[in-house]
């Protein structure tokens, strides 16, 4: 049995009520320069700004606090001034589900922006031997309409801000007990060893390259060595193939790249991943070949969902090998995760193994991604939120079908 905890309305110490903080702006996700500008605005003298930014950075990202009043080495006056104008906005946790396999999924709610409505997104934590990966969302829903993906059927879409992206990481760490103990000395850095969240994948809801600037800011914060300190090699960004943004991803973000390939012929990819009509395979693979910093130790991951009778033939596998020739690549075979209303089926296990063997024999690592958290709908492509969430009864029925 998976466990589901409804946390709506749960007390979050240090967080003022949403009504009270409406006019305050969040400091999460801002670059050091932007944070410095906020400090200047509330009267911090120029010569102190750098030092104050360093202090705030420590509290926000090493300690993960949500309340200015605990920032012991920041003067009382400055704490008061900060609290008057700003907040450390974390998402509200609407629901937390824990799978039988230890995977956790959170439904997070963010307040309305402008004339919009409050939005909900999902974030997933996948514990594995020796590491733990957080699957982070970049948008509410997705404007793209990949036919096998549940997120693609969600209508409400907006970009998440850099603060909302970083907020997912901090809140997940807090819920997992992955933040340093309260008596950690000021100035300590996040240790590399023993972290529960050791890796980040931008593989939640949304197309991260359609929200480039905010994702870039958020990942710069996540990889800052004095803060969350997640190395860029432990951060992977997955795209459906927004070709014009791929070079900039390499140059400006420097993170690992994953491509949602899923088909090796344009006719089929046009259907499965419709952005292919705009940026066909040839252009996509050329952008991959040119991705900066590729080597055997820094390979591009190609994701390939296994759809029965659609893209899983051995001829497809051979064509895949031919297409990827010359690109340092790893192929992640993803058994299709079903969702209510889909017409696709997952390939038979034998076929997935035959496909994997062929690709592997050609010299490419081709792990089959074990579906994680299927019982709580946390697996790839099952994320969907807001009003369109499945009714509980449907969810239980589908969970029983998946488990059975
Ligand atoms: N929008 C980005 C990031 C999402 S990553 C992208 O598409 O790359 C999520 C991965 O899971 C993508 O490779 C996506 O194609 C894949 N996926 C989507 N629906 C799926 C499903 N039902 N079963 C298995 N994988 C799926
Ligand atoms: Fe969007 Fe990625 Fe789903 Fe396609 S696979 S609809 S790009 S989230």
Q: If you had to describe this structure to a student in words, what would you say it looks like?
A:
It is a single chain. By secondary structure, the chain is an alpha/beta fold. The protein contains twelve helices and 14 strands. It folds into two domains: 17-87, DNA polymerase, domain 1 (Orthogonal Bundle); 92-403, TIM Barrel (Alpha-Beta Barrel). 31% of the residues lie in helices and 17% in strands. The strands form three sheets. The protein has a ten-stranded mixed sheet with strand order 1-4-5-6-7-10-11-12-13-14, with helices on one face. It has a two-stranded parallel sheet with strand order 2-3. Strands 8-9 form a two-stranded antiparallel ribbon. A hairpin with a 2-residue loop joins strand 6 and strand 7. Helix 2 (32-41) packs across helix 3 (46-62). The chain is elongated and about 70 Å long. Bound molecules: S-adenosyl-L-homocysteine and iron/sulfur cluster (SF4).
């Amino acid at each position: 049995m998976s466990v589901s905890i409804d946390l709506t309305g749960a007390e979050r110490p240090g967080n003022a009520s949403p009504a009270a903080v409406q006019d305050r702006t969040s400091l999460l996700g801002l670059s050091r320069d932007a944070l410095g500008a906020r400090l200047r605005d509330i009267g911090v003298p120029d010569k102190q700004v750098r030092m104050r930014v360093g202090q705030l950075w420590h509290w926000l990202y090493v300690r993960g606090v949500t309340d200015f009043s605990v920032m012991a080495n920041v003067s009382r006056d400055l704490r008061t001034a900060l609290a008057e104008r700003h907040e450390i906005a974390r998402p509200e946790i609407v629901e937390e589900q824990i799978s039988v396999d230890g995977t956790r999924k959170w439904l997070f709610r963010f307040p309305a922006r402008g004339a919009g409505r409050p939005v909900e997104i999902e974030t997933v934590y996948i514990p594995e031997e020796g590491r733990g990966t957080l699957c982070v969302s970049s948008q509410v829903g997705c404007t793209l309409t990949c036919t096998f993906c549940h997120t693609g059927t969600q209508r409400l879409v907006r970009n998440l801000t850099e603060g909302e992206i970083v907020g997912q990481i901090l809140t997940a760490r807090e819920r997992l007990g992955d933040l340093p103990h309260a008596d950690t000395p000021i100035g300590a850095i996040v240790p590399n060893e023993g972290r529960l969240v050791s890796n980040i994948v931008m593989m939640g809801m949304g197309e991260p390259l359609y929200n480039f600037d905010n994702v870039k800011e958020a990942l710069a914060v996540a990889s800052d060595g004095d803060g969350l300190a997640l190395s860029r090699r432990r951060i992977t960004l997955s795209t459906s193939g927004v070709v014009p943004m791929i070079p900039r991803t390499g140059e400006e973000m420097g993170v690992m790249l994953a491509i949602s390939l899923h088909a090796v012929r344009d006719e089929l990819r046009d259907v499965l991943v419709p952005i292919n009509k705009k940026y066909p395979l040839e252009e996509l693979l050329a952008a991959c070949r040119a991705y900066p910093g590729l080597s055997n130790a820094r390979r591009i991951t190609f994701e390939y969902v296994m759809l029965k009778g659609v893209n899983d033939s051995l001829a497809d596998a051979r064509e895949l090998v031919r297409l990827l020739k010359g690109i340092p690549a790893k192929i992640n075979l993803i058994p299709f995760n079903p969702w209510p209303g889909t017409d696709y089926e997952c390939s038979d296990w034998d076929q997935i193994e035959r496909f994997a063997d062929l690709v592997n024999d050609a010299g490419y690592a081709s792990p089959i991604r074990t579906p994680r958290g299927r019982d709580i709908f946390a697996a790839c492509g099952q994320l969907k939120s807001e009003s369109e969430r499945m009714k509980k009864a449907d969810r239980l029925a589908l969970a029983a079908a998946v488990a059975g």
